[in-house]
Amino acid sequence: MTQETELKTDKEFKLVGLNYRNPVTFEHKKRSIWRERPVASLCLLAVIVLLCVFCNLIMNHEPTYMDLSNCNVAPNKAFFFGTDTMGRDIFSMIWYGGRISLFIGVVATLISTTIAIVYGSISGMAPMVIDDAMMRFTEIMLSIPTLLVIIFVQAIVGKQNVVVISIVIGITSWMSIAKVVRTEVRQIRKSEYVIASRCMGASFFHVLTEHLTPNFVSSIMFMVVMNIRGAITAESTLSFLGIGLPIEVISWGSMLSLSEKALMTNSWWIILIPGVFLVTTLMCITNIGNYIRREVNLSESNI
Amino acid sequence: MNLKKIKKVTVFLLKKISISIIAILFLSVLVFFMSRLAPGDPLVSYYGDRAERLSPEEKEHALERLGLNEAIPNQYIRWVNNAVHGDFGISYKYKQDVLEVIEGRLINTLILGGIGFLLTFLFALLLGIFCAFREESLLDHIICNVGTVTSCIPEFYFSLILILVFSVNLKLLPSSGAYALGQSGSIQSRLTHLVLPMIVVVLSHLWYYAYMIRNKLLEEIRQDYVLLAKSKGLSKKDIMYKHCVRNILPAFISIMAISLPHIVEGTYIVEMVFSYPGIGTLSFESAKYHDYNMLMVLCLITGIIVIIGNNVGQAISEKIDPRMKTSEIVETTEVTKI
After folding, report:
1. Which of A132, B83, B274, B324 has the lowest CB atom count within 10 Å?
2. Are B298 and B187 in contact (CB under 8 A)?
3. Which residues in A231-256 are b (16+ Cβ under 10 Å) and which e?
4. Contacts of B39 in chain A (CB under 8 A)
5. Is A67 part of any domain?
6. Is residue B263, in this structure, part of any structural domain at all?
């Protein structure tokens, strides 16, 4: 944008015969694509997500079918990753269950981000007293360990299915994003364009979507990505402890909840394989998140 | 002059204490109302299977005896009234005074969580300094990458792998409980049961905080005073330990304060996986069986530990460095931790 306008003015100066401007050259620091950008993580994550979405193409067994004649079989040619204690094929379950784990991660993050943006913006735009009260509330919520809150809300809701779990995780993990949103909104709420827009009678949601959100989107991006990671971890922890998804609903967490039986028979594949996929996904997300944080910090410090 | 200072300190303390009390009260209201509105029958946890066979009159009587038939706000007022007098009610599941049940387990959690907390930050500081000395070297890169991997592994999965390797396959360490059967007094038995949970608590949080300290130190060694100290002829070690590390201490302490909920949460998960008889397993059970009185006290204990920890951390770092705006640090660290 700025470069374009500069060129335009240069042309105008040339037209009048005033070519006063010396060409300014500045070298861009050469950055290695491989070291700075999380290419490997992105590719790996893309592969995992694609395979999970199109799991019908690669599954060689029915993931929910309990083949009782083949319980607890170690990895072999028919069952690539072995079978679990209920006789289900782990290779098929990984892709099938990955869909649910990733779905919960994304949906829970969408919910928590929406709550955080609305709550943070209201708190940022509100007068001092209300703002203070709202921020104290988030601090109290932050001081309670998230897991306790989730167990709690889970006990209240009672039901155990994918949507309920996503909602429960979503409504218990919005606090830290809301704090950042609120700080950013506080800084820009007195800007001329916000005031002008309000004078013209714009509603709160119009101001929020048109003027506020584009300004703080970059600073919460990192946290949103990390929130996906948090949601996937929370789901797997809950399912593992037996208060998340039931064993019949396959996800990476509920697959690991069979591990107690697996420990008795020392069948390592039931424990190791779902976990490896879980940790790999979490790591890719972390790498991407860290990259976003570095980029955001970079642009801020250059201004 | 002196009187003024005392007044200032007392006002400061009163403010902090009153905010903490309001926070704790708010927490108790929240927990109380949420737990009472939850579906699920506390009578089941009290009477077990017999609850279904109770006649309506007996049920009425039981509810009245447990104080569950009043309106919820009245129940809350009565609960606060009793709690102030030190009576937190009985646990429906254990049929014992709540405090008695918790008493034995609180120590277990404090041992695991407290020592884990201190070890985490001791190692985090050492590792942070170690990496800051060798910035961008091969060793630093290796530690950074290994650290990122360990911080990505969920606590429960980490515990599972350790159990699989050390208890099931190598048969070196026990996989559950706090002591072997009938050996509650033996220190050796307690120690061997503590090793695996402690490793998980420390390692799963270690890198996150070590990385934060490393980055803070890297910022610090780019300051001008380091150049001055260097030109004066101070050795690298002297600059690092006598100047840089001292300067990041306030930030370090507030990071410690903020990290409390995370480490408490981690300890709870680890307790559940290792079925370690502590508060974590207890709160999980009580939420599952609608053991209201127990849940209230456990949530309050957790909340009080965290709130007091936060306030003490803030006060100490303000004392060390009065310029410090703790809120600023809270926000920057919140950005990085979810």
Report:
1. A132
2. no
3. bbbbbbbbbbbbbbbeeebbbbbbbb
4. 156, 158
5. no
6. yes
**Residue in the block written with tokens 């209300």:** A130
The answer to the question of residue A12 being in a domain is no
Find the CB nearest B261 among A145, A151, A272. A145
Residue range(s) defining the domain that contains residue A136: 90-302
B336 touches chain A (CB under 8 A): yes
Do B166 and B224 share a domain, yes or no? yes
How close is the nearest chain B Cα to the Cα of A131, in Å?
15
Are B44 and B125 contained in the same domain? Answer: no
Q: Which of residues 188-247 of A touch B (CB under 8 A)?
A: 219, 222-223, 226-227, 229-230, 233, 236-237, 240-241, 243
**pLDDT band, very low/low/confident/very high, at B44 (cuts 50, 70, 90):** low
Contact between chains at A148 and B265 (C-beta distance less than 8 A): yes
Structure confidence by residue, pLDDT tens digits, A164-190: 889 888 988 888 889 888 888 888 888
Contacts of residue A155, defined as CB under 8 A and 6 or more positions apart, other chains included, come to A243, B35, B38, B40, B287, B288, B290
Answer yes or no: do B132 and B26 share one domain. no
Residue B127: per-residue pLDDT? 92
Top-confidence residue, A243 or B197: B197
pLDDT of B90 over the 60 cut = yes
CB atoms within 10 A of CB B39: 10
| Partners of residue B335 in chain A, C-beta under 8 Å | 176, 180, 219, 222-223
Q: Would you tell me the crossing angle of helices B187-220 and B155-162 to the nearest 10 degrees?
A: 130
Cβ B176 vs Cβ B275: under 8 Å: yes
| Size of the A and B interface in Cβ pairs below 8 Å | 136
Answer whether A40 touches B (CB < 8 Å): no
Rounded to whole angstroms, the Cα distance separating B95 from B100 reads 10
**Is there a single domain that holds both residue B272 and residue B214?**
yes
Residues in chain B: 338
Best interface-test mutation with B: which of A132, A146, A152, A290 has the largest number of B CBs within 10 A?
A152
> In A258-278, which positions are buried (b, 16+ CB within 10 angstroms) versus exposed (e)?
bbeebbeeebbbbbbbbbebb
The identity of residue A292, as a single letter, is: I
Nearest CA-CA partner of A157 in B98, B38, B283, B127: B38
Binning pLDDT at 50, 70 and 90, where does residue A103 land?
A: very high
Instruction: Look at residue A109 and tell me whether its pLDDT is greater than 80.
Output: yes
Torsion-angle region of residue B10: left (phi > 0), alpha (psi -120 to 50) or beta? alpha
Is the per-residue pLDDT at B183 higher than 60?
yes
Q: Looking at the complex, does the CB of residue A168 fall below 8 Å from at least one CB of chain B?
A: no
Contacts of B6 (CB under 8 A, 6+ apart): none
Look up the CATH number of the domain holding residue A238. Answer: 1.10.3720.10
Question: Tell me, what's the pLDDT at A8?
Answer: 62
Give the residue, A51 or B184, on which the prediction is more confident: A51
For chain A, what is the domain count?
A: 1
Tokens of B180: 């072997």
Question: How far is it, in rounded angstroms, from Cα B179 to Cα B149?
Answer: 31
- Chain B, residues 17-46, CB within 8 A of chain A, namely 19, 23, 26-27, 31, 34-35, 37-40
CA gap A214, B66 in Å, rounded: 54
C-beta atoms of A263 and B163 within 8 A? yes
Checking if the pLDDT of B323 tops 90, the result is no
Domain hosting B181: range is 107-337
